[in-house]
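Quick note —
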Amino acid sequence: MPCRPLRLSFLSVAAWAVACGASVVRADGYFAQADISVDTFTGVFSMQRGPLTFGTVYSDYEGGEDLNVTAAYAFPLGDPAMPVTLRVGPALQYEGLEELKVGLRVVAEHYRPTDFGSLFLLGEVSSIDKAYFGLVAFGLSGPDVVIELTHQGDDDDYRETAVAVAKPVPGTDFSVRAGYKFRAEEVFLGVSWNTF
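Predicted structure written out below.
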């Protein structure tokens, strides 16, 4: 099986950025991230305008390349102070930069402040390749870092579990990150830009 990068959807990344990247969330903003390892590269760009989110993810991995484009509309559910937000919208995947796939993506996310900082939970499913993604992110206010645990897969026998740590660069909208992919047994490094 080819070694693929973390195939984060832009919705997952944008939602994580909104939840973990700022103590007071603004409705509109931009997020970009690049992760690189020995065999893989993933680049993400997303933007949010009110309840609408748009974005793209480019993945270059051993054995292929993918380009994903998505849009979604947000529906807050439950307690307005700490809602579960449901995001639903169309998804396009240009798999291997050869085959176009069209589908539907659904994301559920929840953010809450805690005594130690913050907790963010996210689950995502897509009809394209029956893909799924889960993320738990702990924002630690003391050392000012975010620790994230992810698991994802699809019906093409792709599976990956990873852990990463992100550290904001003081006085900027940038963060640096490092992590480890357990199935691929490789370290990745990255940088992100977040205006939320």
